[in-house]
Amino acid sequence: MPLDPYFERQLRENRAGTITEIRQRIAAVIRALPTRTLTGLRTLPARLRSLRAGRNASPGETLGTDPGSRRAGGQHHSSAPAPAEISDGEEEFEDPCTSANPAPEDSAPEATTHWREITPTSALDAFTTAKAHRVPRGTPAWEERNALLWDRKLHGRVGLDGPDLTTREFVIPVPGFPEVRVRLYLPDTPAPKTGFPAILAFFGGAFHVGGIDYTSVDAGFRRRTRDARVAYLAVDYARAPDSRFPTPVEQGYAVLDWLFARASELGLDPDRIGITGASSGGNIAAAVTLANRARAAHPLRLQLLEVPSLDLTGSHIDLRPLREMRVPKFLVARELRAIRSRYLAHPDQARTQLASPLLAADLAGLPTAHILISEYDTLRGDGAAYARALREAGVSASAIEFQGATHDAGMYTAVVPLAEHWHLHAVAILRTL
């Protein structure tokens, strides 16, 4: 089936913009060639003299550098210019999923032993704070701020706002890892005698962007909570590259354990709890489900995985959507490598089951799985293969493909009818809790 008309127009516009950008870069290189050639010719005699002098230099002597600039080993390193501050004019929010900053080491775990309730925040508060807080351009802090601002701008064009609901926020300790903040969304209907059914939720964002304060994420959780009459417990797990695998999985499992222990006092039904996640959040949700089976074996009723990334080795990537959309294959390969390098400390971790749940040797005993995939998404192979593997292991599982949809189609609820159908389908699944 062809792409949804809205996404087809987007694809044409993006392709035209990319071609224009490539042409501009080529023209800039061509224009710079005469200057570079002339500069090279002018400096050639000096380089030749330096080369001849080097042949006559004593062993270990470094030529052509200022003595004060020498470092250990005789190497000279020029310092990079400081990142420029974001201008005070109208800001341009870049698509955060294309950035690939180097991955630093994990941040040190925060030692906490008791959970605590904190004052709830709102997406608007987070946006206002981020917009007022200027940080050096190109830094991880800038990337995080830019992504949050960009998300609100995009949601304002394509998404529906969520309803005003009662929320509570908590900070949960995670043994050996940083503590994690969670937000509980409560339906605006009277609670059943046994308490509301609940779903533990993980947002998407390629492991390195996103959060429960993002406007689109918060709005989606609010709409699902109201329409499904299911309490959402959203996990603001730590993002890469500051916190790498398995930090988000361990944080997710700690919250799951806390949820079952505290369900009744939170007004929730401990016998009607599920787990959900989208994209990279689907990866974490599936990994937490596997960890739960191996540890406490809490009685999860279902797992709802939306466009999940379930094999970080890339073995189940489906390239057919790329051919149909005429998108170069190398772009997806580059993005997959960038995701792995941010999230995993070593590529070999991609073959472990908590990083790639699809590669688990045994999937028996897991809760019923509902998997939603998009026709024009290279990750559709992950979702379809996981449903197949679950059924082979005796688990009730289905994979529903939305034709004409792209990977992030579900957030376009204000402009694409298909996105609202996606929402209603997920709501119907959640009502089975």
Polypeptide structure, described:
- With 433 residues, the chain is of the alpha/beta class.
- Helices cover 40% and strands 16% of the residues.
- Strands 1-2-3-5-4-6-7-8-9 form a nine-stranded mixed sheet, with helices on both faces.
- Helix 6 links the parallel strand 6 and strand 7.
- Helix 2 packs across helix 3 and helix 5 packs across helix 6.
- The chain starts with a helix and ends with a helix.
- About 12% of the residues have low confidence.
Tell me the layout of helices and strands.
Layout: H1 5-56, E1 116-118, H2 123-132, H3 140-158, E2 166-174, E3 177-186, E4 196-202, H4 215-228, E5 231-236, H5 247-262, E6 268-278, H6 280-294, E7 302-306, H7 320-325, H8 329-343, E8 368-376, H9 380-392, E9 397-406, H10 417-430
Parallel strand pairs: 4-5, 4-6, 6-7, 7-8, 8-9
Antiparallel strand pairs: 1-2, 2-3, 3-5
